[in-house]
Each structure stands twice: as C-alpha cells, then as structure tokens.
Amino acid sequence: MDFETFASARWPRLVRTAYLLTGDHHEAEDLVQATLAKVFTGWSRIRRLDEPDAYVHRALINNNLSRYRRRRVMQFLTPVLPDRASPESAYGGISGIEAKSELIRALTQLPPRQRAVVVLRYWDDLSEQQTAEALGCSVGNVKSQASRGLSKLRAHPALAGYSGGTGLDGMDHRDNRDNRDGGGK
Amino acid sequence: MDTEDMVREALRAELAAVEPGEWPVGAMQDRVRRRQRGRWAVRAVTSAAVVTGVVLGAGMLSTGWGSGREQVGAASASVLPAGTPPAVVVVRPGQRVQLGQGDWMSLTSDEICTHIVDAYGGGPGCGGWSWAAGTTGINLQYEDGVYQLAYYGSEQVARLTIEVDGTTYWVTPVVLAGTHSYTTGYVRAPLPSAARGPQKNPPKKSPIDGITMVAYGAGGKVLATSTTTS
Q: What pLDDT, in 10s, does the model give residues B181-210?
C-alpha cells in the first residue's frame, strides 16, 4: 500500500483519536499531520511491519505526550470552565467542537497518560496489552491508569446522561485523587 | 451499564458528530518538506568510495587509491581533527548508546536503530538503518544535529571522521560486541553553512552535500571515504 492510500484512509479515525487526546480540533489535525509526516519519512520500513497501524498509534500518542511535556499547555486544564455553548453547537461540527463538550472537558482534566489510556482502551478498543505497548509501559500500569481515569469520569457530570453508574468494573480504584501523570515504563 | 460501557458510549456519541476535514494533501507535503530539511540520509554511497591509504605523520593523509578510482573527497579528508580521538565504544545488542540531548541509538547484527527525541518524543521508538549484506562502504545520515556514520565491511575501524565546511570532527565509533561486520559512529556538529538559513521549498539539493566521511583502520589505514552529493 502506498503512503497516501494508507494515510488518507486513516485520517478521519486518527483525527478523532487526536481530538480526544488534545481536546481541540485544530490541535488534533496538527498532531495527526505531524505524526503522519514522521511516518512518511520511514514509510518504506513501516509499511513492511506486521501492524503499521500499531506503529502509527504509538507515534501519535508519543507525539502528543511529547508536545504536552514541551509546552505544558494549560489552556484546556483551567479549573474555571468557560460558559457552556448551546447544545446544538456543542455537538454539531467544528463550531461545536470549539465550544467543547462536558465530556471533552472531563477528558482534558485527566493527566495526559491517563487520558491516553482511556482513549485507547475505550475509543480505539485496544486491549490492555496493546495499550501498554502503545504507551511503553506495563499492563499493570495501564490497568491502574484506566481505573483512575474511569473513577474520575464516573463522578463527572459529563456522564450523568449515561445511566447506570453502578460503576464497578472489577478494577482496583485506588487513590483517585492522585492527579499526577503517573505513567512510566 | 458499567463505567467502561458508559465511557465507550459517551466517547462514541461525542465523536459521531465530529467530522474531520478532508485529507490535507498539500499541508502534508509542506510538512514533509520541512521535516526533510532536518533529516537527510545519504545511503547510495557504496563500494565506489572504498579506498586504501595510510595516514602519514601527524595529520596528513596520503592516499593510495585502490583500483585507480576517483579520489572522492581526498583533498578535504587530508587533515585530522585536533585532540585525542574518541575510543571505540563496544555495546551489547539492543543496548542504548546515548547521543546527547535525549537521543540514542541501539545496534543489532544488521541494523542501527536511532531514536531522535524530536521525532519520537518520550516513546520507545526508533528508526532503522541497514544495508545489503556482504557489501562494503561508508555512508552518513543526519538528523536534528546528530551525524551518524556507518562503515560496513570486514575491516576493523579504529577512527572515524567527518569534515564539514573545512573543519574535521572526530566521530565516536561504536561497534557491536563480537562482530566487525560494521562500525557506526556519531557526532554532534553543525550543518554546512549553505544549509543554514532560509532555503527554497523544496530545496534543490540535500543540505548535507559536500560532507566528507572517512573510516580509518589500525595504523591509520583508510578503509573507506566518500563525500556526500545529492
């Protein structure tokens, strides 16, 4: 498969993943473009991998974590939430995206590695093992981060509309006050 | 519904309304061009550049070119750098060699894998570099301030140098324990002056044109040399 065919087919899905990671539509497209530009330079090798998609996932996650560390972007982590946009704009295309939904705000309040675990596990449907490989950490770390992330999201108003909330998913919910980026290899 | 399913459902509902723009071909091409300015590899230089020669005295090179081939880079390869050459670093397969500023490389029997922080961030990834088995030659790649050389052949390398804009730099040789099938090396050095500053988009030639690389064996014997060209 040539690079353009591969990249154009993955573009929408990658942008959506990046949107959950960054909380911003323009930042998401920029992140995916930067990641694919890097993939392009090694495409002759990457195309021969058993799972080029796994490689691109890793690159996307690492690129985002690297950007976060470098810039320490705080604009989406502000404790004072901006006024909520109307429901129509909040869920309807780019203008809605800019207004940011409750869920996106909830996600962006998670530490970046925890957010990445939640996105990879529950949006991209990666297994714990695949998520661990994408993040370069242990499966135990993925379980722990997922547990903490879910615990925070469960208590967030963003999920109030999703019934149930009995919540317990069989995981160890320790120390959900810990807001540090506790990832590691 | 447990929390995992709630989150799944919420994420899907959230993203159902998100419509990414079209695949941005033009923007991607621009990015690739910008990125290529910072990463150049010269991998086509092969056995045509392999020579035999001996370093005579302190810093002067006399070349006894094998088979009368063109003396690629001979004039500019004639001066050795000042100072003590770095010792050869011997590593185990997969062991990371720190290149400075967080960059690293690791070696296997047939591949050099290089991790540049700017490209891979905090992740474990690295980009591979290999060559056809059984060939002999020397080549060079550059990324974000780091030059890497690879001499591949049966001879044992004692020293490596590159010359940029008339200044010659020692390159730290790195070999894999138990094999002499290749020697790599690294050095942080500036790009040629012609490659700095604004360039045409896309540049007409590689910014690492005109760099001379030399691999020396024991006693100053020149095992291979070449000068990069687009």
A: 899 999 999 888 876 655 444 445 566 778
At residue A163, the pLDDT reads 57
Cβ–Cβ < 8 Å for A59, B123:
yes
Contacts of B6 in chain A (CB under 8 A): 153-154, 159, 162, 164-165
Q: Tell me the two tokens of residue A85.
A: 């946009």
Interface test with B, best of A5, A6, A16 (most B CBs within 10 A): A16
Cβ-nearest to B7 among A25, A63, A150: A150
User: Is B7 close to A153, i.e. CB distance below 8 A?
Assistant: yes
Q: What is the mean pLDDT of chain A?
A: 73
The answer to whether B133 and B143 are in contact (CB under 8 A) is no
Element (H, E) at A104: helix A102-108
A residues 4-43 near B, CB within 8 Å? 4, 7-8, 11-12, 15-16, 19-20, 25, 29, 33-34, 36-38, 40-42
In degrees, to the nearest 5, what angle opens at C-alpha A135 toward C-alphas A131 and A136?
A: 110
What is this model's ipTM? 0.72
Of all residues in chain A, the percent with pLDDT exceeding 70 is 69
User: What gap in Å lies between CA A155 and CA A149, rounded to an integer?
Assistant: 10
